Design the sequence.
């Protein structure tokens, strides 16, 4: 699955600080992603959430100046740099003013921060795809009855054998394929229209 780019329409709408719907959608998609990425830098959950909040505040302050420019990189690249910089700032603050964290090796964390491009970019894209998928499934699940949704989830997400799932759910193989196909189509539509 190719990670969809953040919709230009959502980015445009984010420039209007009063567009609560755009900010809510942005938060639902990106906040869990940022927390996971920051947590992977060795921060405790509470600290990761604090840094994620700082990232979102930084984005809200700078989004009006952000312009789409292929030479300067993608929005997600920009967001990733903000997150990385704020993690570094947080770790430096922690090193200067340590508090009881259960982890006294802050220098190690700083040394392990990856370069701006490369593995961090791949990790960010993977986490973004995971988060956009989770967001889209939570948005559309109520549109489907329980049995088709279970069939989709167990075969497409959990990777279970389709014949076995069809039998357990009392569905024909054809009905399972149709349910999966409809849900996948709706998921693609939701992901493609995110931010419009």
Sequence:
């Amino acid at each position: 699955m190719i990670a969809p780019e953040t919709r230009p329409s959502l980015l445009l709408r984010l420039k209007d600080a009063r567009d609560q719907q755009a900010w809510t959608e942005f938060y639902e998609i990106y906040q869990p992603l940022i927390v996971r990425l920051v947590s992977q830098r060795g921060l405790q959950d509470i600290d990761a959430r604090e840094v994620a909040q700082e990232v979102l505040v930084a984005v809200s302050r700078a989004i009006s100046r952000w312009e789409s420019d292929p030479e300067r990189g993608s929005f997600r690249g920009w967001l990733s740099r903000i997150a990385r910089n704020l993690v570094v700032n947080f770790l430096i603050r922690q090193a200067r003013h340590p508090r009881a964290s259960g982890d006294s090796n802050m220098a190690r964390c700083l040394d392990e921060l990856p370069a701006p491009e490369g593995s961090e970019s791949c990790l960010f894209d993977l986490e973004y795809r995971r988060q956009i998928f989770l967001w889209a499934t939570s948005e559309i699940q109520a549109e489907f009855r329980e049995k088709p949704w279970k069939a989709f989830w167990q075969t497409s997400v959990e990777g279970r054998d389709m014949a076995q799932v069809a039998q357990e759910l009392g569905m024909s193989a054809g009905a399972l394929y149709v349910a999966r196909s409809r849900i996948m189509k709706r998921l693609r539509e939701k992901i493609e229209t995110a931010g419009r």
Q: What stands out?
A: DSSP finds nine helices and no strands in the chain. The two ends are 21 Å apart (CA to CA). The mean pLDDT is 76. The chain has two domains: 8-142, 144-196.
